[in-house]
Design a protein that fits this description.
By secondary structure, this protein is an alpha+beta fold. The protein has eleven helices and 14 strands.
Length: about 270
């Protein structure tokens, strides 16, 4: 965990409690943040990272807002979502520690493609896009945005994928959310994958854009079918059986293209 030092200042703005952090090269290495960067490059970036503690459900930025800052998650979980045609908040992705988010600040239009909200109490690092690019890469933000503008085909693929996601049934959306949770916040167990992130049915409802009552009904059905298990307050997911619920066309999509590599990085449980 990133070590904290003195100077605590509390602000009610955006529900943020700010404490000055001693963010070090070693801390970024432990988070596997910028694994390609040299120690010298990271040391150049450190003075430009402002660490903030953010309370759960704080909106970091709304969809469509102008963007000049890039974020790195230091601890906790952050939710990216978009609003569908019915006005429902639909999950796009969950961010785990060490991942960058808000990277539309590096794009030519510099507008937020998604809404960003703290899914749990978390620590974030905030950087100006110009400082990030100039210190890590030694180029101007304008030049970098020009390059991004000519090489962002995967973003359009991503947006198209999640537009399709909005047309899925609640059951399918819930299954996809559970599978992503196992990939990012799961520990393998002989019975399946234990979720290390504690979730309520209301949390899941917020992720998939549905009411808590409907999510509870579907979760009970999944439990009866043996696709998920309860052990006290812990949720154990059986990923393969959940994937079997999805149609073959969804399985062929890129949703699980990186699953094999991510699964190899999931730590093994040492005990129950």
């Amino acid at each position: 965990m990133v070590p904290a030092v003195a100077h605590l200042r509390v602000s009610t703005k955006l529900g943020v409690m700010t404490r000055e952090f001693s963010v070090t090269v070693g801390a970024l290495r432990r988070l596997n943040a910028f694994p390609w960067a040299s120690d010298h490059q990271l040391s150049q970036l450190l003075p430009h990272i402002a660490a903030q503690r953010v309370r759960r459900r704080t909106v970091l930025f709304p969809e469509g807002a102008a963007s000049e800052s890039v974020y790195i998650l230091l601890s906790g979980a952050v939710k990216l979502s978009l609003c569908n045609a019915s006005g429902e908040d639909v999950l796009v992705s969950l961010i785990r520690p060490g991942e960058l988010f808000g990277i539309t600040a590096l794009m030519p239009e510099a507008r937020r493609a998604f809404r960003c909200e703290a899914f749990s109490d978390c620590w974030i690092g905030v950087m100006q896009a110009e400082a990030l690019v100039s210190n890590l890469l030694g180029v101007s933000l304008a030049d970098f945005r020009g390059m991004m503008g000519s090489s962002v085909g995967r973003w359009f693929t991503l947006l198209y994928r999640y537009i399709r996601f909005q047309g899925l049934s609640l059951r399918q959306r819930l299954v996809l959310a559970l599978l992503e949770l196992t990939q990012k916040f799961g520990v393998q167990d002989s019975r399946g994958t234990i979720l290390t992130l504690r979730l309520t049915h209301e949390d899941l409802a917020n992720l998939v854009g549905a009411s808590r009552q409907r999510v509870t009904e579907h979760m009970r059905e999944l439990e009866v079918q043996g696709l998920i298990l309860r052990e006290g307050r812990r949720l154990i997911v059986v990923p393969q059986r959940l994937r079997d619920l999805l149609s073959e066309d969804l399985v062929r999509e890129e949703f699980f293209a990186t699953e094999t590599s991510e699964r190899s990085q999931v730590p093994r449980a040492t005990g129950r």
